[in-house]
Amino acid sequence: MAVEAEVLNELRGLRTRMPQLTGSLAASADGLVLAQDMPGVEPEGLAALTAAALGIAHRMADTARRGEFCELLMRGKQGYVATYAAGPSAVLTLLAGGRANVGRLHLEGRRSGARIAELVAAHLDAQAQGRDRRPASALDEIAPPAQGRTLGTLPVRLPRQSRPRLRPDTGE
Fold first, then answer.
1. Stated pTM of the model
2. pLDDT for 70-80, tens place per residue?
């Protein structure tokens, strides 16, 4: 069975276990959709926003010295958006209604994130060993993370150094 189908089965199983979920999405850290079960929501747009939020969450955790990113929870008037790390190169985003049990959401999200991480890692291992001979897909765009680089980090921009201006009339 292709890894995308296995990830989709995990997402569907998650929605079966937690009926308060209104959608689920597995994406690469770069914002490419791996699998989705989200009626009524544009998955590509949400995957891109997830990647952006993930980068900011990593920087915030690093700046605050809170360790490696694990999860992000956003609450709106209509419900929750929860994002969980799914290994070093993928992420799981869940949408839940306002009456959802947040503890259960975290429990199920963490379990599914770990399962998706296993599936993606197995795919990357098979790809690295040349055993994967299936047609190209979004998973082929996932590269193993570079050594020492954490998922979703943003480049650091240093402020430009100001240089003293020379006065044209004196040459100083």
1. 0.74
2. 899 999 999 99
